[in-house]
Structure formats: structure tokens, C-alpha cells
Design goal:
Blueprint lengths: L11 E7 L2 H13 L4 E4 L3 E7 L6 H6 L1
Antiparallel strand pairs: 1-3, 2-3
């Protein structure tokens, strides 16, 4: 039987984007939809990491 794993012990997942005008709104939307995520900003890229899963909502991206 599978039991749900607490969020803090789930394997981290991440997505990385090149920093440019096209990705800034996508990153902002992902931040809003995933308050548990950590965001690392580098000179040329942004990495968003979260335990277990990241949610990317089309509506959130198109609203920005």
C-alpha cells in the first residue's frame, strides 16, 4: 500500500530558465503558484526547485 509522503521528504524537482524578457513572466507565475519553491537567480539563468512537484498553470502565465 502506498502512503503519501510528507512534502518535506519528497525528492526535489526543478526547472531552469535562461534569464530573458520571454521567461521573466513565466518565472513570476511559477513563483506565485508554488509558494513552497525556492528560487535561485544567477546572471544568465533562474532555477526554481520544489519538493515533489512544481505546478505551471497556463492561466497564471497568460495573466502576467
Amino acid at each position: 500500500m502506498n502512503t503519501p509522503t510528507p512534502e518535506r521528504t519528497k525528492t526535489p524537482v526543478f526547472i531552469a530558465f535562461v534569464t530573458n524578457d520571454d521567461t521573466r513572466n513565466i518565472v513570476a507565475a511559477i513563483r506565485e503558484d508554488n509558494p513552497q519553491a525556492t528560487v535561485e537567480e544567477f546572471p544568465a539563468m533562474v532555477k526554481i526547485e520544489s519538493p515533489g512537484r512544481l505546478v505551471v498553470k497556463r492561466q497564471s502565465v497568460s495573466d502576467l
